[in-house]
Design brief:
Rossmann fold; Alpha-Beta Plaits; six-stranded mixed beta sheet; three-stranded antiparallel beta sheet; globular; binds adenosine-5'-triphosphate; ATP hydrolysis activity
């Protein structure tokens, strides 16, 4: 076990940032922390990396985080602004120079997709390229434990996937990774296990598929009708129970049930522009457990579709 956290608590004055969080992370695991703004993710990463004190027990490599040899950990803080007037290459080389042993800066730049921007000043890089440099600085010491607070924020979809591949490769080589993200797809695709924080508490913990099975709800058919109310009436008359789906009309349906839903719509003469069948995702888990879904079946049924 690389990380063992038991009943971790942290307050900032009256604000409770962490309210008794317990979990552990094994070697080579990718562990993603998700949760709304202010849920406590950054505070937890800071407690694990020893940059803030916390009550409870936090053990990293069997000891106190603050005492772990710094070359064993790579940390990407959420807010990190390196010197503007150094190039991407100089910055990575600078951070590499802080360790007795470090990786070749050029290979780190290649890993984060910045070979072609090595000579560009940090201030002249795009937002996503800047974030890549920051990720690079966390990799220079070839750490055993990598903690990445929102590593891919601002990075374009292709670059994000490249970073997922990089992180997966590191984990396959034995690196343990803890990351935070607001991208549910990132947590679902990348993480072995996910912890969902809300108001300082870990409200769900498990592999993405376990969480989806448990909290994600049913597969659904989403109907983009010309007249939502007509669709709601037709489906209700046919005995379907409407479910909430991003302010669209939707019913629970397995793939084999799609024809009968289509038939019910056709029989009532409902015109639709789109039909989409989809299985639950980690985003559904997030919405179910944090209650941040703006739309609801009730709103649709009462004609309140935005
Ligand atoms: N240095 C600080 N001083 C005072 N309050 C803080 C401090 N850092 C965090 N907080 C508060 O602690 C709570 C948890 O914040 P934290 O940054 O850990 O959340 P988060 O889940 O990382 O949020 P986000 O998704 O917005 O990054 C919030 O209410 C925040 O306002």
């Amino acid at each position: 076990m690389i990380i063992d956290a038991v009943d971790v608590r942290r307050r900032y004055g009256e604000t409770v940032a962490l309210d008794g969080v317990s979990f552990s992370v094994d070697e080579g695991e990718i562990f993603a922390l998700i949760g709304p703004n202010g849920a406590g993710k950054t505070t937890l990463v800071r407690a694990l990396s020893g940059t803030t004190d916390a009550e409870g027990t936090v053990s990293v490599f069997g000891g106190s985080p603050a005492e772990v040899a710094r070359d064993r950990i790579g940390l990407l803080p959420q807010e990190f602004t390196p010197a503007d007037r150094l190039t991407a290459g100089e910055l990575v080389a600078y951070y590499a120079g802080l360790y007795d042993e470090s990786r070749d800066p050029e290979s780190v730049l290649a890993d984060v997709g910045l070979t072609d921007s090595a000579d560009t000043f940090y201030e002249n890089l795009s937002g996503g390229q800047k974030r890549r440099v920051c990720v690079g600085t966390a990799l220079v010491n070839d750490p055993e434990l990598l903690m990445l607070d929102e590593p891919t924020t601002g990075i374009d979809p292709t670059g994000r996937r490249d970073l997922w591949e990089l992180i997966e490769g590191l984990a396959n080589g034995g690196t343990t990774v803890v990351l935070t993200t607001h991208y549910m797809e990132e947590a679902e695709e990348l993480a072995d296990r996910v912890g969902l924080l809300a108001d300082g508490e870990l409200v769900a913990l498990g592999s993405p598929s376990e969480l989806i099975d448990r909290y994600g709800g049913e597969s659904r058919l989403v109907i983009e009708a010309e007249d939502d109310e007509a669709a709601v009436d037709a489906l209700t008359d046919a005995g379907y129970e409407l479910i909430s789906e991003d302010r669209r009309v939707a019913v629970p349906a397995e793939a084999t049930e799609i024809p009968s839903v289509v038939e019910a719509l056709a029989e009532s003469g409902v015109v639709y522009e789109g039909l989409a069948w989809r299985q639950p995702t980690l985003e559904d888990v997030y919405i179910a457990l944090t209650g941040t879904d703006a739309g609801s079946a009730d709103a649709i049924a009462s004609g309140g579709v935005a």
